[in-house]
Amino acid sequence: MPKYPYTVYIVFPRLEGNIICANVVRTIHQTTRKATSLTADKTKSPTNFRETSKCYASLIQECISTKSLENLKKLQFQMMGCGFPHLSLGNKLIDGYLKCGGIAEARVLFDELPQRHVVVWNSMISGYIKQKKSKEAVLLYKRMFFEGVFPDGFTLSVVFKGFSDLGLVGNGRQAHGHAVVLGLDVCDVFVASGLVDMYAKFGLMRGARLVADRVVEKDVVMFTALIVGYSQHGDDGEALEIFQSMLKEGVKANDHTLASVLASCGNMDDLCEGKMIHGLTIKSGFESSVAAQTSVLTMYSKCGSICDSLRAFELMVNPNQVTWTSLISGLVKNGREEIALSKFCQMLTSSVVPNSFTLSATLAACSSLAMLDQGKQMHAIVMKLGLDLQKFVGVALINFYGKCGCVEFARLVYNDLSELDVVPLNTMIHAYAQNGYGQEALELFHVMKDMGLEPNDFTLVSVLSACCNAGLVDEGRQIFESFRHNPRLRLTNDHYTCMVDLLGRAGRLDEAELITNEVDSPDLVLWRTLLSVCKIHGDVARAEKIMSRVLELSPADEGMLVLSSNLYASMGNWSQVVEMKTHMRDAGLKKSPGMTWVDLDRKIHTFKAGDWSHPCSQEIKDTLVELIMKVHQSGYVPDTSLVLQDMDEKEKERSLYYHSEKIAIAFALWKTSSKNTCIRIYKNLRVCTDCHIWIKLVSKVVGREIIARDAKRFHHFKDGSCSCRDYW
Description:
The protein is mainly alpha-helical. The protein has 38 helices and six strands. α3 runs antiparallel to α4 (69-81).
């Protein structure tokens, strides 16, 4: 026991004059001197004992107000050192420890208490739930019954969340039974709301609705739990109906209610209802709520109303990290990548630090536009913020480098990831597949299996694409057959399409058609793929049979009509070509023009075949003429059979010279004539055979590497050869 009153100043060296007022310090000064006499026999001085308890309780409250866990621990130590029965203030100390974040200290003290009131049980269970330690909360709830303590409404309303967090459906229903026995399931709105929330999180919406329907006076918490449950489990129509019922009963929505209803409007693509809810959000004064702001932007994004999304964002005052991220993600998902990158720059200018989700969205924008330099800057920001080892960002980086043709960089990012599961492995396999690295993709696929990871739908699509792009027919067939007998994976049209493409390009058209006929409901993409391989191998009879079946299903399918027209043109059947084009014109269909773009000096330059509208068109023409002369000297002969128009040979040659790929490469070479860097071009359609041969020869005569990304894959041209080995 301390003998000197200055002990209080040692325990609280920083409190006097700052936090604890002078009279409290003076009281502790006196309390320390009298501690022995007061605690030796409490019955002799009940008044002084009450004063001492009151003083310690005041100090506990001061520690709570300053969130000072260390001072609270020192206070308990002093109480014990003075011989003061600290357990008499056990409930207050436990409450103090919980509010200061010392749940371990609270539990030690809890276990020391000789008798525990239901209030202290509630404090401990609630503390565990708040710190996301639901398992400990549930165990403590079960211990209550063994010690003969019955839960009250607060206990049940809190522990329901623990059951839902752990997915303990059986235990949750048992606790529901306890609530019924105690008569709290209907009369206590907090218990009822907790039950509704628990069943909703279990996905048992019928149970949640049954509980809610028995409650006479529902509050906003219960309605919100129902709305969130229906929205998260795909029943958005029911969520909107519950919201309408809520308004009819005169219950005012809060920001979380409105955020959930807006999410349902977005899921249903109901822009009209979404705008009305947005108006209600503003009228209710929740326009500054982060949850509401994010849901407004997400709703407009899902409805494809980007203009409304941008207008709503402009009206927001001081948007935070979450709001910026929601806007940028919505822009990327709607194909507005350039605006998304512009907004990202504005975000940085506003001194808002991006998070992993923001950076993943901007990297996706760079991937879509194939903007390598900008993506590398994003990578630098990722590293500066210390996010480079996070799986979520790592996957975005792998995808970005893969779509920009930088497989080596993608693999470096993959190798640095600290956590590997199916997602980064799939992304890396897909990057290999896009760039024609078939063997590397197969090796990684086997690594996945050796790690005990279960391949999913996307794994199979990526592996089969890798085999298709590399001509690994037998390997692809073997993997496909192994998945056929896998009960955990159902083959889809995408998988069959990959197999048809793989077999068809290898000339095994009978097998490709047989696999197509195995599919219960083949889609148009599958039929187009089969027709495309028929065109490659000139199998007109089979192609006509396929066309007749598809045109019965979809007479106005643009892709099928274009393929049919090209097939007849390649066979010189111009009357059928005219018929197909007339059919397209009558149906109001138009073939998408081929375009090639190149990113130079942070600017995208786009070219179409025979289009000389570029400001530097004369320089491009001069460079192109020079390149054509050089490749002719290296053995280039234009493949005029690819010109699917009825014209003479000279005109066909001239038509081939002015393909968008050739114009883009001529521009890039002229613009970077003083450099020896890699040329990167991107095309919205597949590269034709003539351009493929031409680019190979250009890479040799100019001594520059050229990387071309088309609608199917990447081609890496260097020293007169291509990474695809002329198989694509």
